[in-house]
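call fold(seq) -> tokens
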Amino acid sequence: MRSILSAGLSGLLFGLGLAVSGMINPAKVLNFLDLAGSWDPSLALVMASALAVTAIGYRLVLRREAPVFEMRFQLPTATRLDARLLGGAALFGVGWGLAGLCPGPAITAAGLALPQVFVFLAAMLATIALYRWGTAGPLLRNRRA
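ret:
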């Protein structure tokens, strides 16, 4: 129960930070990405401050033997750049540039009840479902054999 409460409070804090920084406003994000037009550099400061907080936070938290509400840390183990990672990053970037939203801000922006946010969330969920169906299909077929 404490783990769920901690995750919920972390998500609430993250969403509040997104809202305060303006990252849930697709127009603000698109202006940040428009280097040749009406460029808005304010989100660069948001990203830089998030990177600084994360870098310091990782150093402090990883001094512990384990997280407060879990048995062990769950950190990524992959160290290589491969086609799957680069393709996913490119797809993420294209989607962010076209819509002005990425998953975290889109979920937070759902509270604004903007139609384009719901279209983005529906497309995101459909893509996740297609990916899971595509990757789970071969696994299920191999189990039956």
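The mean pLDDT is 85.
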